[in-house]
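Instructor's aside before we start: the two examples that follow are unrelated to each other. I chose them only because their records fit on one page, so don't look for a connection. First example below.
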Amino acid sequence: MALPISPFAPVDKQAVMGRLEATGSHDPDVLERERERMLAAARPGWIAGVVLISIGIALWIAGAGMLAGLLVLALAVWLIYRGKRNADAIESGFAEFVKPPGL
């Protein structure tokens, strides 16, 4: 399974390991650069969550948009959770890929 194009789609450890294997190299610098690319692709979901939290709080404080603010806050929490989970999957896939055999 290839890594998804959308930063909001879930990423699994096997996809990360496949992408690292597709580099065709075991050079630590090449693998680290690919890991950074994958993390950069996952980052917009987290950033969108943080922006939506500020919008949700502003709507909540305004009073007229309390329900909308609550819904925006719920979406923001989900986006941050998804971004964190994707980053964790990338890190664990990378750690497993670079782990020496037999450990």
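Example two begins here.
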Amino acid sequence: MRVLEARFHPRRREQADFVTLGYLVWREGGMDERPVFEPARAMVPDPVRSKLEYLVGLNEPDSFARLQALRSDYWSFVPIGANEGPGSATSTRQLGS
């Protein structure tokens, strides 16, 4: 299992503050697999979630590696260990479905 923490930087990436939106989880580990989004917050606004889905789709195949290399002022994707995991997210949904 591979996991990326999806972070949004409301005042640009150079600033120290960011919002953890949730986790992108690849359960099988295949390059063509779409990740499951597990929200870290009770509510992720639809426009933000739509942008996240767009970024994942834009960086396929192998979005796990490509999202980590993404050059964006407002988004970052940080790998976390499987043991650190998404915790107790209440809602999961495969992106793009």
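The chain has two helices and five strands.
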